[in-house]
Design brief:
By secondary structure, the protein is mainly α. It has helices at residues 11-27, 34-62, 66-90, 97-125, 132-151, 166-190, 237-250, 256-291, 296-306, 308-319, 323-348, 362-378, 386-404, and strands spanning 5-6, 9-10, 128-129, 211-213, 219-221, 232-233, 383-384. It comes from Kribbella orskensis.
Length: 406
């Protein structure tokens, strides 16, 4: 097995990023036939898997919530670059691309990723725990960002249509960046402990023997109590469970050199993911047009492809009974998508020609309101079950269906 590891990382995780970039270079700007489409899809899937692996290596090194923040920021920065590039080359057809992609990212993260993590985690662990104050604060910031950036343009009167005036767009960009910056400060510095995973409590029946708490707080098994036998200190079952989970998640703590290597490979993977998604997007646009579906479907597909790494990472965290990590990924990605995209679009609008449509339609606003209400109910108790996950997935399914058939 030692020959499969180089520099502390599996050989496949070292080989996939450059190979995916080679596929990107070979297919960039070309008319894709059936064989090249398969090659691009294979490269895309491999890059997503490698990105999740390297993100977990970095997360193990820097700890939570920095690991999830790094993945969310890396994906969002490249997502913003992709949106601006497509808008610059798409003309008036791309006027609503930023709105469609950002709103799709919100619905995917808050309903698709959260719902999938809740379902998968609940199937394996029945009930999962998370921190209400952390997830609730993230939901509050997300609600404010979406309302100020995507809902208000529909009702402003300074400009016709669902658009902002230059001054309004600048204000929305500054407000979005400020709120996201404050959230990151709270998440990583002021109240970092709020965003750490919750370790499920072990029921008392699972403890072995009779546990006697000493003045030092050490669990002891009273073997032959009253007979003069010495009490033997043993770890209680909950401690054993915690140690086992810690070994599962943090056993191979990487060195700083390995973490830096994984960080670099993570960015290569994300560049490959976004680049390959852009490469295949013309075929997707043709398929959308031939099917008679709205242009907004393109934004949904782009968001789905770009958010694949977060989706896989969130599901894996839920399987390990780390639902807080899954929520950090989902809600953090939604916040990063809005908090960074709107300021970037505000700056890019200086040289981008054509209108910039940001305001949501009636259907989207209803779905967003439903998402906020259901998310508040889901995050109110600090415990999640299969039912809550199914509700979120149903809302996500409704969003996808109505995007295809409005």
């Amino acid at each position: 097995m030692t020959n499969t590891v180089v520099h502390g990382l599996p050989r496949w995780s070292l080989a996939v990023p450059p190979l995916a970039l080679v596929v990107l270079v070979l297919t960039w700007g070309r008319d894709l036939g059936a064989v090249l489409i398969v090659l691009v899809c294979v490269g895309l899937g491999a890059a997503v898997i490698a990105a999740v692996h390297h993100a977990e290596v970095v997360a193990h090194r820097v700890g939570e919530p920095f690991g999830t923040l790094i993945l969310a920021l890396a994906v969002t920065v490249i997502e913003v670059a992709l949106i601006v590039t497509l808008m610059a080359s798409g003309g008036d057809k791309a006027a609503s691309l930023a709105r469609d992609t950002v709103f799709a990212a919100v619905m995917i993260t808050c309903n698709g990723i959260v719902g999938l993590a809740l379902v998968v985690g609940s199937v394996r662990h029945t009930t999962q725990q998370f921190r209400v104050h952390a997830s609730g604060s993230a939901l509050a910031v997300m609600t404010a960002l979406v309302t100020l950036s995507l809902v208000l343009p529909t009702f402003t009167t300074s400009t016709p249509g669902a658009t902002f005036s230059p001054a309004q767009l600048a204000f929305a960009g500054v407000a979005s960046l400020t709120m996201y910056g404050v959230f990151v400060f709270v998440q990583t510095i002021r109240h970092r402990d709020y965003f750490l995973p919750v370790v499920a409590e072990e029921p008392a029946a699972a403890r072995v023997g009779t546990v006697a708490e000493t003045s030092a707080g050490v669990g002891q098994v009273g073997a032959g109590a009253g007979t003069g036998s010495e009490a033997v200190e043993v770890p209680i079952a909950a401690d054993l469970v915690d140690d086992e989970e810690d070994r599962e998640v943090h056993a191979a703590a990487p060195t700083g050199r390995v973490a830096l290597l994984s960080l670099g490979l993570l960015f290569l993977c994300l560049i490959a993911v976004v680049g390959l998604a852009k490469t295949v997007s013309p075929k997707l646009e043709d398929a959308v047009e031939s099917a008679g579906a709205p242009v907004a479907v393109v934004g949904v597909v782009i968001a789905l492809l770009v958010l694949l790494p977060e989706t896989v990472a969130a599901v894996r965290a839920a399987l390990r009974n780390r639902l807080q990590t899954s929520l950090n990924l989902a809600l953090g990605s939604a916040l990063a998508s809005i908090g960074l995209t709107i300021p970037a679009i505000a700056v890019a609008s200086i040289w981008l020609s054509g209108p910039l449509v940001l305001g949501l339609g009636g259907t989207e606003m209803v779905l967003f309101a439903l998402t906020v209400i259901v998310s508040m109910l889901t995050l109110a108790t600090g415990r999640a079950t299969l039912l809550q996950g199914a509700v979120h997935l149903m809302i996500f399914s409704s969003f996808v269906f109505l995007a295809v058939s409005p």
